[in-house]
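User: I'm new to structure prediction. If I give you an amino acid sequence, what do you actually give back? Let's try with this one:
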Amino acid sequence: MRKLEKLKEKLTYHVVDSTALLIESTPVYALFEKGVAKMSDDMSINARIFAGGLCFLGMGWLYSQGRDLSKKIFKITDKTKEKIQGAHDVAYNAVFNLALAPPIYAVSQVLAKEDLDLTKIAVGTGIAMILGAVNGAPQGYVVDTFRDLVGLKSCERKTYPKIIKKRSSKFKKSLAGGLAIATIGLTGLIYSLTPDNKPQQNLQTRPAIEQTSNYQNDSLENLVV
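Assistant: Good question. You get back a string of structure tokens that encode the predicted 3D arrangement of the chain. For your 225 residues, that looks like this:
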């Protein structure tokens, strides 16, 4: 019975942490993939879906478990100075993204039916590392506070607003759900406002196909006449 409860607790932590990671990271990475790496909509969307799938299939658990273990090793708690917690998350995220980004972008490009472009993958990975470092502190903060919002673990960070911390469980859970919905809307807005950077070869193929089709139609008409 105790083993079952422990398994349930680990599964709950996994789902909550994975959701928190995706809420914070999805619109941020979508913006950089579209605005800086100049990826097509298909490649970027595939990357976000693939990353989300990996997150819930175990990558989110691996991230949060590795982060918790790293914090234990360096003796960092919620009450440690925010600068130190932030510096830890910066370094941890950069290393984590270095290992994760290349396969995600390679698979996403294949799924988008684009030729494998190592330059785009390298640029995407570099951006993921830099973004992981810059975004490390906010991402770690969201994980810690999201655990509190869903009632999993109280957040003792000094920067966690007391006006939220003291609210009811129902309010906190509603806020958590609202953040998830807002993430979907914001990500969709990013794709609608940024250009779809499709590979040039795809744009040049269509006229060639249309020209061939017109030629065939003309030939059939001549035969009929």
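You can read the tokens as a compact description of the fold. Here is one thing that stands out. Residues 202-206 have pLDDT under 50 and may be disordered.
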